[in-house]
Amino acid sequence: SAARSAARAAAPRSTRGRETQVGPGRYWDLARPRRARAQPDPSSLRRVLSQGFSSTFTGERRPKNDRVFEALGATDELSSAIGLASELSSEKGHAFVEQLHKVQCMLQDAGSNIATPLSSARQAHLKRTSFSEKPVLELEEWIDKYSEELPPLRAFILPSGGKSSAALHVSRAVCRRAERCVVPLVQAGEADPNVAKYLNRLSDYLFVLARYAAMKEGKEEKIYIKSEP
């Protein structure tokens, strides 16, 4: 009948294979293919990558080989080296791994300061990335604490003394390089002098800690022996 036909026409169609969209009487047909998103042009992507620039925290664009990024890469590598040393030391039950974790966090703060060149930083940037002398003084306290427990040095020692100690020596060497990368930034007035001070004291801390780890594990430290002519 006409009434039955009208009722069928007014009734909503089956939503099998469909998903209801927000809003009355509107549906998405799941069987309908969606329009694919436009893929980036590989040639344009290569052009972007080949420009060889990156941004500082202040938004300034600089070449990737700029000394700011050299210093950032060095501190990142240092944190990675310390992370490995920390894992090896943790396996031996050394309590100083908590200090190493704190050092890694401080290196993140140091990186923030390095990534904020003072020549282009606003006051808001400086407030967020300042680096105080407090962590430098803390490192000196740690150095004194461990040095008191170590026998005096009577010869040049080589990186050795077990896995924990050797990994800490690697971290010390990487730290020296990071310091060399940061010093020019400090001299140019682009980074806080406390960052360079921290790295300087950190390398001494890592040296003392390497010796301490060897002593605690009962490992022998190899000494330098001059070759016969």
UniProtKB/TrEMBL annotation:
<dbReference type="InterPro" id="IPR016030">
    <property type="entry name" value="CblAdoTrfase-like"/>
</dbReference>
<keyword id="KW-0808">Transferase</keyword>
<dbReference type="InterPro" id="IPR029499">
    <property type="entry name" value="PduO-typ"/>
</dbReference>
<dbReference type="GO" id="GO:0005524">
    <property type="term" value="F:ATP binding"/>
</dbReference>
<protein>
    <recommendedName>
        <fullName>Corrinoid adenosyltransferase MMAB</fullName>
    </recommendedName>
</protein>
<comment type="function">
    <text>Converts cob(I)alamin to adenosylcobalamin (adenosylcob(III)alamin), a coenzyme for methylmalonyl-CoA mutase, therefore participates in the final step of the vitamin B12 conversion. Generates adenosylcobalamin (AdoCbl) and directly delivers the cofactor to MUT in a transfer that is stimulated by ATP-binding to MMAB and gated by MMAA.</text>
</comment>
<keyword id="KW-0547">Nucleotide-binding</keyword>
<dbReference type="GO" id="GO:0008817">
    <property type="term" value="F:corrinoid adenosyltransferase activity"/>
</dbReference>
<dbReference type="Pfam" id="PF01923">
    <property type="entry name" value="Cob_adeno_trans"/>
</dbReference>
<comment type="similarity">
    <text>Belongs to the Cob(I)alamin adenosyltransferase family.</text>
</comment>
<dbReference type="GO" id="GO:0009235">
    <property type="term" value="P:cobalamin metabolic process"/>
</dbReference>
<feature type="compositionally biased region" description="Low complexity">
    <location>
        <begin position="1"/>
        <end position="14"/>
    </location>
</feature>
<dbReference type="InterPro" id="IPR036451">
    <property type="entry name" value="CblAdoTrfase-like_sf"/>
</dbReference>
<feature type="region of interest" description="Disordered">
    <location>
        <begin position="1"/>
        <end position="47"/>
    </location>
</feature>
<comment type="subunit">
    <text>Homotrimer.</text>
</comment>
<keyword id="KW-0067">ATP-binding</keyword>
<feature type="domain" description="Cobalamin adenosyltransferase-like">
    <location>
        <begin position="51"/>
        <end position="213"/>
    </location>
</feature>
